[in-house]
Structures are given as C-alpha cells and as structure tokens.
Amino acid sequence: MDVDDVVDSVSARTWTPGSWRNYEALQMATYDDKALYETTMAKLSSLPPLVTAYEVDNLTSLLAQCARGDKFIIQGGDCAERFVDCNADYTTAQIKLVVQMGAVFETATGVPPVRVCRIAGQYGKPRSSPVEKHPTLGEIKSFKGENINGFEPTERAWDPRRLLEGYWHSAACQNFMRGLQMDPEFAPKMLSGLDAAAYKASPKYASYAKTVSEIQSAPPNVAGPMFTAHEAMQLDLEEALTREVPGKGFYNLSAHMVWIGDRTRQLTGGHVEYFRGIKNPIGCKVGPSMAADELQRLVKILNPDKVEGRLVLITRYGNDKVEAMLPAHIRAVQASGVPVVWQVDGVHGNTVTAANKLKTRKFDDVLGECTKALAIHRELGSVLAGMHLEMTGQPHVTECTGGSINVLEEMLGNHYETLCDPRFNYSQGLEAAFVMSHAFRGADVA
C-alpha cells in the first residue's frame, strides 16, 4: 500500500473521542474490576478541565513561530512525576529551572523561549515489558507511573482509582503554577540564584558568566505563559478529559500539549487514531525504527489540514545515530509538504547502564545529539524549533553523569531518586541551555 492509500484509509474513518477503541492501543493498563473502572471514568468525564481551549490555541500559535525560527521551545521536566512531589517547593524548583533556561537562551541568542513543562500530568510511562521478575515475589507488573500502579513491588496492581489521584494532583499543580505566575515578584524569584560559578571547569565559562551578568543587569521578560504537557499513553483517561468546544472541535483539556511515544505511534493504532482528531498541538516521538515513508504517512494523518504549529516531531535517535538518520527524516517531511515543528529529545536515545546497574545518561552524549541536530537542520534548510529534556530542578540529584559539575559514575547512587529514567539535575539542565544557546548563535555547532 503506498503512502496515499494508507493516509486515505485512516482519514476516511469517522472520528470521535472514543473511536480509538476500535483499534489496537498498546501500553495501556486494563482493569479487572469493571464496575469500579466505569465509576472512575464517569467521574473523570464530569470533572472540570485542567486547561482552557484559549490557552491551547495560544500554544499552537507560539509553536508556529518556533517552527519559523522566531522563538525556541524549552521543554523539560520529570521522566515520571511522583505524587509526593506535588508540593510548593518541588514545583517551584521545576518552574524555576525552565524559566532560567529560557532566560539564558533568550539573552544569549536574542530568540525568546516558549516554555513547556513535563508537569501536571506526566504520571504514566510506557515500558519495554509489562512484567518484571522480583527476587521474592516472582513475576510482578512493571511500574507504569503512579497513574497506573505504585513503585513499591507490593503495589504493582493496576488500580483505576489512581487515575483520579492523578487528576487531583494535576489540578493542584496547575493551580499552584497559575498562582505562582500571578505573583508580582515572579520574575525576581525565578531568576534568583542564577549563577555561572558551577561551570568554571567549562572552556566556555567566560561566555556563560557574561550571559548571567547580562541577565542580572537587564532581566528578560519572563512573565509569559508556562504550558503543560505529558505523554498521552492511557487513552481512556485522555478521552475522559476531552471536551467539545462549540464551533472549534474537540480539545484534550488535560494539558496544553500531549504527545505520542515511540512505542505507540502505529499508523493504524489507537493512539494515532485518537490524536488525529483533537485540536491541541500534538507531538510524536521519532526514533531509529521510524522509516522515512512511514514518517511521511504519519505527518499526513496527524496534520491533514497543514496547520502550522499543530504537529511537533520530537526526534530521539542517540548521539551516535542522529547524523545517519535525521537527514532522511527531514527530507521526507519536506517532500510531504506538511508543516511540522522539529524538536530534539537528547535524552531518550542516550540511555546506558552503569557498572552498578543503574540507568544513566552522559551529559556530552545528550548535548552532542542536540547540537548535531541543530547543525543538520541548518544544513538542510530546516529549522530546529526546540529541545526536550528529562530534568529536575533539584541540585543534589545524581542520575546523569558529566557536565561541568562532573558527576561520576560512582556517584550515581548518592542521590538517585527517579522512578523511571535518569534526569539532569539543576546544574546540568541549566548548562544544557548554555551549551545549546552557544551552538545556536553559531559559536559552537557540533
């Protein structure tokens, strides 16, 4: 079947928020207690939305500007949020890191950021296997995020009531974020503590220190919106929070942006079916297993009306594969005529296992992929519109190695706190903004 036949076949389907149920949807939890499940879904469907259609449309407009090179997406946050971290101090630290990264990028390059956080809903995670072996309990379900089950081995049963817990935590986080941004002292609070001292080991330290000095003497405007985003893995949850807006269509109002993971992007599967009908800006991870012709089909299915800012392609190959794979994908999309927003995810293709069996990522590999992607886009007349990282605002976390603070492999166990994949800590996240802005202005493109 050629490209147009596949696209026509999917596009001819009648779409509703629940039409995904007619197709295979991978990675989703299912529940034995059907009565409890139905009660939970009914409650979720009646609760207020977490964001507004106006905010969603605003993000689409801003992402279109990013695709043209007028703005740049700074996106990041936890791999998998923890309910326990839904508190003022932790949330403030997450927002502060994203704001400071955006301030660094804008001051160094002159390009304003669009700030998108992996927050207020990133409670579900796909896993390579639905089960794992436990030394005493035998086979147990894999941890799929606190929306689905608990991290402790004895709490791995799939419980639909956790979906409601996720909603309440998301609502609390959203409420706090909105209040934080309304504070007249938001800018000085967010920029306080910004310092380049941690990067003295970097050969670019003088440049980083100059950027910090410029921010301190003439702070950029950081009062713009902060957007939320998460991977929409559990489609029944997403359907329950989908609302029809008169005259506009259906919006997923659980977040401003949602994305499809690399494991759930099947062209005729349930996730693509659901995503093609909602009006949000939507993302899709693009990894090494994506064929160029498959990507052409995908962009035509997900953005048939060629709306600028609607479709974000989040590439994640690995530092050693990006140069071999990204050019063909860029050319395939260019040939399709579908406008997309290109974003580089430097973390997911660069996960390795340390000697102590902990998963980790090397700072140089992550930023190597990001800066190589930037150079490739420019060479092919394309625009890299943003970067996407898993990171935490906590300075003490030791989950990724390297960076100017030089986290060594033997230090990983000191403060390894993630429930799933390793994250940059505060210093590494901020340094990523310094490195990327340095490359962006042409001073150091890999």
UniProtKB/TrEMBL annotation:
InterPro entries: Aldolase_TIM (IPR013785), DAHP_synth_2 (IPR002480). Mn(2+) binds at C79, H348, E390, D421. Coiled coil: none annotated. It comes from the Eukaryota. The keyword Amino-acid biosynthesis applies. Its EC number is 2.5.1.54. One of its GO terms (biological process) is chorismate biosynthetic process. Pathway: Metabolic intermediate biosynthesis; chorismate biosynthesis; chorismate from D-erythrose 4-phosphate and phosphoenolpyruvate: step 1/7. Belongs to the class-II DAHP synthase family. This is Phospho-2-dehydro-3-deoxyheptonate aldolase.
